[in-house]
Design brief:
This protein is of the alpha+beta class. It has two domains: 124 residues, Nucleic acid-binding proteins (OB fold (Dihydrolipoamide Acetyltransferase, E2P)); 335 residues, 2-Layer Sandwich (BirA Bifunctional Protein, domain 2), CATH 3.30.930. The protein is 33% helix and 27% strand. A hairpin with a 5-residue loop joins β4 and β5. The radius of gyration is 29 Å and the shape is elongated. It starts with 7 loop residues before the first helix and ends in a 20-residue tail after the last helix.
C-alpha cells in the first residue's frame, strides 16, 4: 500500500510551472522582464470611452479559454478589467504561448483598444501581450479564498490577494493616519522622530523588551512610549510636536494586544487635557468622512462616532458604581491599601496577596465602569497614584487632570494636562520605583533622571495625548481583533504550533 506524501499536489504544480518557465525561456522570451510601462490603471481605463488605446498591467485572476479566443480578468491596485485575447489578432504563436503557458496568478501586460462586449462590459481587445512575472505557486481557491485565520495572518500577501475586504481595511487605515497627520500639521504641530533604542524605558507603565549594545557594552530597551523625548522637544522650544510610530511592550498577546503596535503621541504647549479632548473630536470628524458613516457596528454594538462625545467624571462614576467616595481608597498621591482591599472584597473583585494596589484599583474600574462604555466617552480625572506624569487637579492632590477615551468598550486614547513641576515629578517617579521594588509592580514607571534635569530648565504648561492607531483602526473598521488591522502581527513560530 502506498500513501500520497504531504503537499504532493502542490509540489507537482510547482514543478509543472517551473517547466513552463523553462519552455518560455527556450522561446527566447524573458518571463521576468526588467520593466513595463502601463498608460492606465484598471480604474482609469474603466472611465475611458470605447476605441481608446490603453496599456494595462496586473495579475490575471480569471481565464476562460474558448478555442481561438480567451477572456481574462486583469487586476491591479485599483480594480479589475476584462481583456479579450483572439488568436487572429495577437498571432498564432503568442496566442498558443498565452493559452498553454500562462495561468491565473501570472502578471501580464496588455496593449489594445477598449470595446464594449454584447453583455455591456468594457474590455481591452488585446493586440499585444507581455509576460511580466510567471507565478509558480497556485493562488488560494477562488470561491473559498484564504479563510483560516492563522494562515491569513502568516501569509498576509495571499490574504490581500484573496480577500478584497482585507485590502479595504489597510487602505482605510492608511487614510486614517494621513488624516491625523493633516489635522496636526494644520494645527501647528511638528512631526518628529525619536529614538527606538533607549537607556531607560519610560513614559508608560509597561514591561520593556531588553537588548544589548555590543559597542557600548550595556543593556538597552526598546521604547514603550515616545512621551519623554517629545516633552523634551517642547522644553526645547517647539510649540507642538508629535510622532506616529511603533512602540514595544513585552506583555501578553490577545485580540487587543500585539507586542509591537503603533501610537500617535502629540504634545502642545499652553494646552491641557480639555484641548486634547477637542483634538480627539476633530480627528473623529475627519474619520467619519473617510468611512462614510457616523455609526459603525463593532463587536455587537452600534457605536455612534459623531462628536461631541460624553464626558464622564471618574470620581462621580466610582461613587455611583461602588457606593463609596473614591477618596476613601486614596491616600494623598498614593492608595489607602486597606480600604481598597475591603472595597474589592465587598464588590467580589478578585485579587491575590501579591496583587499591587494599582492593579486592584484598575480591576474594579474595569469591572464596574469601563465595561459599560459602548458609546464614545471621555473618562475624566484619574487617581494620582496611577498617573505619575499628569498635573493634579487644583486643590486635590489625589486626582489628576487625565482622561482615557473609550469607544466600543475599547480604550482608544489617553491624555493629560502634563505635569511640569520637576520636584513633584521626581517624587512621583520615586514612588513608582518603590512600587516596582516593594509591591511587585513590574509595570510601574521608571525614574528618568535625564528627563527630570530637562524639566528643571523650565517646561511650559502643556496638554499631551497618546492614541492607539491600531485600536482606532479596529473601531473604524468594525474589527474586534488587533490582528485584523496589523499587516504582519506577531505569531508563534510555525514549528511551535
Amino acid at each position: 500500500m502506498t500513501t500520497t506524501p504531504p503537499n504532493s499536489g502542490i509540489n507537482e504544480i510547482v514543478a509543472n510551472n517551473y517547466a513552463k518557465i523553462k519552455a518560455i525561456r527556450e522561446k527566447g522570451i524573458d518571463p521576468f522582464p526588467h520593466r513595463f510601462k502601463p498608460t492606465h490603471k484598471a480604474a482609469e481605463a474603466a472611465k475611458c470611452p470605447a476605441d481608446t488605446p490603453v496599456t494595462i498591467a496586473g495579475r490575471m485572476v480569471l481565464m476562460r479559454v474558448m478555442g481561438k479566443a480567451t477572456f481574462a480578468h486583469i487586476k491591479d491596485g485599483t480594480g479589475k478589467i476584462q481583456i479579450y485575447v483572439k488568436k487572429d489578432v495577437v498571432g498564432e504563436e503568442p496566442y498558443e504561448l498565452f493559452k498553454k503557458q500562462m495561468h491565473v496568478g501570472d502578471f501580464l501586460g496588455v496593449e489594445g483598444k477598449l470595446f464594449v462586449t454584447h453583455t455591456g462590459e468594457l474590455t481591452v481587445n488585446a493586440e499585444k501581450l507581455t509576460i511580466l512575472s510567471k507565478s509558480v505557486r497556485p493562488l488560494p481557491e477562488k470561491f473559498h479564498g484564504l479563510t483560516d485565520a492563522e494562515a491569513r495572518y502568516r501569509e498576509r500577501y495571499l490574504d490581500l490577494i484573496s480577500n478584497e475586504d482585507v485590502r479595504t481595511i489597510f487602505v482605510r487605515r492608511s487614510q486614517i493616519v494621513a488624516a491625523i497627520r493633516d489635522v496636526l500639521n494644520t494645527d501647528g504641530y511638528l512631526e518628529v522622530e525619536t529614538p527606538v533604542l533607549c537607556a531607560q524605558a519610560g513614559g508608560a507603565s509597561a514591561r520593556p523588551f531588553i537588548t544589548f549594545h555590543n559597542a557600548y557594552k550595556y543593556e538597552m530597551y526598546m521604547r514603550i512610549a515616545t512621551e519623554l523625548p517629545l516633552k523634551k522637544l517642547i522644553i526645547g522650544g517647539f510649540d507642538g510636536a508629535y510622532e506616529i510610530g511603533r512602540v514595544f511592550r513585552n506583555e501578553g498577546v490577545d485580540t487587543r494586544h500585539n507586542p509591537e503596535f503603533t501610537t500617535l503621541e502629540a504634545y502642545k504647549a499652553y494646552s491641557d487635557y480639555n484641548g486634547m479632548a477637542e483634538l480627539v473630536e476633530t480627528i473623529f470628524e475627519r474619520c467619519i468622512k473617510i468611512i462614510g458613516a457616523e455609526t459603525i457596528d463593532y463587536n455587537g454594538m452600534k457605536v455612534n462616532l459623531k462628536p461631541p462625545f460624553r464626558r464622564l467624571s471618574l470620581p462621580d462614576a466610582w461613587k455611583e458604581k461602588t457606593g463609596e467616595d473614591i477618596h476613601e481608597v486614596l491616600k494623598g498621591k498614593g492608595f489607602n491599601k486597606e480600604n481598597l482591599k475591603k472595597l474589592a472584597n465587598k464588590l467580589h473583585s478578585e485579587f491575590g496577596p501579591d496583587t499591587p494596589p494599582a492593579k486592584i484599583f484598575e480591576n474594579i474600574m474595569d469591572e464596574r465602569i469601563l465595561s459599560e462604555l459602548d458609546q464614545p466617552t471621555f473618562v475624566m480625572d484619574y487617581p494620582t497614584a496611577i498617573t505619575p506624569l499628569a498635573k493634579c487637579k487644583a486643590g486635590d492632590e489625589s486626582i489628576v487632570e487625565r482622561f482615557e477615551f473609550f469607544a466600543g468598550k475599547e480604550e482608544i486614547a489617553n491624555a493629560y494636562s502634563e505635569l511640569n513641576d520637576p520636584e513633584d515629578q521626581k517624587s512621583r517617579l520615586l514612588e513608582q520605583l518603590r512600587q516596582k521594588e516593594e509591591e511587585n509592580n513590574g509595570e510601574a514607571d521608571v525614574l528618568d533622571k535625564d528627563f527630570i534635569e530637562a524639566m528643571e530648565y523650565g517646561m511650559p504648561p502643556m496638554g499631551g495625548i497618546g492614541i492607539g492607531i491600531d485600536r482606532l483602526a479596529m473601531l473604524l473598521n468594525g474589527k474586534p481583533s488587533i490582528r485584523e488591522v496589523i499587516l504582519f502581527p506577531l505569531l508563534r513560530p510555525s514549528d511551535q504550533q
